[in-house]
Amino acid sequence: MIKTRLTFITAGLTLAAAGMAHAHASFELDSTPNEETFKAILQVPHGCDGKATTEVQVKLPEGFVFAKPQPKPGWELEIIKGDYQKTYDNHGTKVSSGPVEIRWKGGNLPDDYYDTFVIRGKVSGFDEETVLAFPTTQLCGTEAKIVWDEVPAAGENAHALEHPAPTVTVTPASDEQAHGGHGTHQAAAGPVEVGDLEISGGSVKAMLPGAKVGGGGFVVKNTGSADDRLLAVESPAAGRVELHEMTMENDVMKMRKLEDGIVIPAGETVELKSGGLHLMFIEVPKSFAEGDAVPVTLTFKKAGKVDYVLPVGSAGGEAAGHKHK
């Protein structure tokens, strides 16, 4: 039988008595397999007794590591770092400290609206089903606040709590996940938008068994009136991802790393694929196999960050050159 335990970031969580259930701060997705990258999307449904929310503080539990918050226009980000209780592996590097609390400050979210606050991190170190609690505090000016930090006692229904902490249930990884597989990720169902950009299409080429470097790409359409720039790409499926360009010089194909990123001109479309602009996945722990899918996080200079998933095609197929329309 799989056991369930509660894991807390501090000893200050309250085992509260049941109160009247009402809309509370919670995660859009509340479960993830162990040893996976997870995007914690916190939903803040209302203010403090009618007052606008001006700050959101989220404490990160042990086992949610390598965290990176998503910036929000109009809000200042504060990342509080500290020591982990254990040491975690980050693509061969042992890491024992990192972000332990994230704060969005100085914003203004009126009580009439709701918004989301996003933190991306890896869930690691769990061999049985585990519930992770993320104590969250809403500040509304200097006088009002709501603390979402209650967790249910044994046998108690979390929905009966007045101020339950947002939680994520971690499930044991499958054998494929435990050995670095990527097959559990689903390919993107359609285009993804961030700012004035639309990301679509593309893929990653299947790799020969044991290979450590792979290539891929996607399509970016800029519907805005200002240029943007793709600055970086990250993926939990590789030690690092680089932006490269293939060019012909005196009938010789040469490849170079683009240190300054790739410009996405206003009103145009840029396609990344083999033979031109493309992605290089380096230090891949498990070679990409046809039918898998590779998650990536794209960072743009103006539009910000967005998550996307690239399907793995055949080794001989197009993986996404350079085309403007």
TrEMBL record:
Signal in keyword set: yes
CDD domains: YcnI_like
Signal peptide: 1-23
InterPro entries assigned: LpqE-like, Lxx211020-like, PCuAC_sf, UCP037139, YcnI-copper_dom, YcnI-like_sf
Entry keyword Signal: yes
A Pfam family hit: PCuAC
Keywords: Signal
Domain YncI copper-binding: 24-170
Stated name of the protein: YncI copper-binding domain-containing protein
Protein species of origin: Sinorhizobium fredii (strain NBRC 101917 / NGR234)
